[in-house]
Amino acid sequence: MNALSQLNDQIFLAINGFARHTPWLHAPLQAYAKYGVALFGLLLIIALLKVRRGPTRLLAAAGWAPAAVLLALAINQPLGHLFAEQRPYATHHGILVLAQRTSDFSFPSDHATMAGATAMGLLLISRRLGWTAVVAAALMAFARVYIAAHYPWDVLAGLVLGAVVAFGGWLLLHAPLTALSAWLRSKPGVNAVFAPTAEPGEAAAA
Question: Where would I find the Phosphatidic acid phosphatase type 2/haloperoxidase domain in this sequence (predicted)?
């Protein structure tokens, strides 16, 4: 564990050193680290619109994806209190800090957890949207370390946690979620917006 901790520190300090030499990246990465969650929300909305008249299984996945994000974040909160890891700027003096200082715990990263769950949830729906989210998630993870809000293992753990919750939950719940989506589609009000136009079982993923 000591070797892993040393490697974690070394990577963090290397990224922080890179941040010192790239002042032109400060503003965009600060903005993305803080407001990039909006991009993930937009991708989830696009996914729902993309499959709203497609196969019921994909519509169910589009409904599950945002639920998985919320579930992953709910699981992440007690984990943060369990590990109670301090933020990098609380333990490393003299580093460049671009993040807004907070008393929240560092491990795992909420932002990375959200990003990981969104990326995996979207991969269940559309390869194109899913891989767009994977790239966005990787950038979010890097940005959170770049601004010194997290250590590398904080964001890596968050990405893995989010992805596991989204994928594992879908494996367990896809049958009842698909049945629920089919039932909801049969209702007059819902049917007007989400009536399927694809043949049952037709693959609509891009």
Answer: 56-170
Cα–Cα distance measured from residue 162 to residue 99, given in angstroms and rounded to the nearest whole number:
22
d(CA 56, CA 160): 27
Considering the entire predicted model, what is its pTM?
A: 0.88
Cα first-last separation, the chain: 42
Hey, what are 100's tokens?
A: 């807004």
pLDDT in tens, 100-138: 888 788 889 999 999 999 999 999 999 999 999 999 999
Alpha helices in 106-187 (DSSP H): 110-123, 127-146, 152-185
Tokens of 5: 């901790």
Which residue range(s) make up the domain with 73? 10-187
* CATH number of the domain residue 165 falls in: 1.20.144.10
Residue 198 lies in a domain: no
Write out residues in the chain with pLDDT < 50, as ranges. Answer: 198-206
